[in-house]
């Protein structure tokens, strides 16, 4: 990085869409877990209903995915169906607080959601690929 910019020619995809997804991407900041492990939230947009769903991944310093979960947050009820962008839960930030993981995000562009769970329980949902 020079002058706090990233050369676009150096960017490489690290997640591919599944056949049922329109797109996937990062959606949160990183939370450092160890010397070379960082927890990040990611999202996928489903083709059939355009809903946004969220999962977690562990990446290394180089941005390579070490572990990934299936979707952990998904729209389920009226609160996620209402708003300018229905069926959307979009993670905006992760916070590690004591033994908990707190995930803050927008819900359907009309309110904010705060989701909390035990960090170890969340990490149990990830599948190691490296």
From TrEMBL:
* Cross-referenced InterPro entries: Glyco_hydro_beta-prop_sf (IPR023296), Mannoside_phosphorylase (IPR007184)
Q: Which Pfam families does its entry note?
A: Glyco_hydro_130
Q: Which UniProt keywords apply?
A: Glycosyltransferase, Transferase
Q: Does the keyword Calcium apply?
A: no
Q: Does the UniProt entry include the keyword Glycosyltransferase?
A: yes
Question: Which GO molecular function annotations are given, in alphabetical order?
Answer: glycosyltransferase activity
Gene3D superfamilies on file: Glycosyl hydrolase domain, family 43 (2.115.10.20)
Q: List the protein's name.
A: Uncharacterized protein
Taxonomic lineage of the native organism:
unclassified sequences, metagenomes, ecological metagenomes
């Amino acid at each position: 990085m020079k002058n706090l910019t990233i050369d676009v020619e150096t960017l490489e995809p690290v997640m591919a869409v599944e056949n049922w997804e329109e797109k996937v991407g990062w959606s949160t900041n990183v939370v450092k877990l160890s010397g070379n492990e960082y927890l990040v939230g990611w999202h996928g947009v489903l083709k059939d209903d355009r809903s946004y769903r969220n999962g977690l991944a562990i990446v290394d310093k180089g941005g390579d995915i070490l572990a990934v979960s299936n979707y952990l947050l998904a729209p389920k009820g009226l609160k996620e169906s209402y708003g300018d962008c229905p069926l959307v839960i979009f993670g905006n930030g992760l916070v590690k607080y004591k033994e908990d993981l707190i995930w803050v995000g927008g819900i359907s562009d009309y309110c904010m959601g705060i989701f909390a769970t035990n960090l170890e329980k969340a990490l149990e949902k990830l599948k190691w690929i490296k």
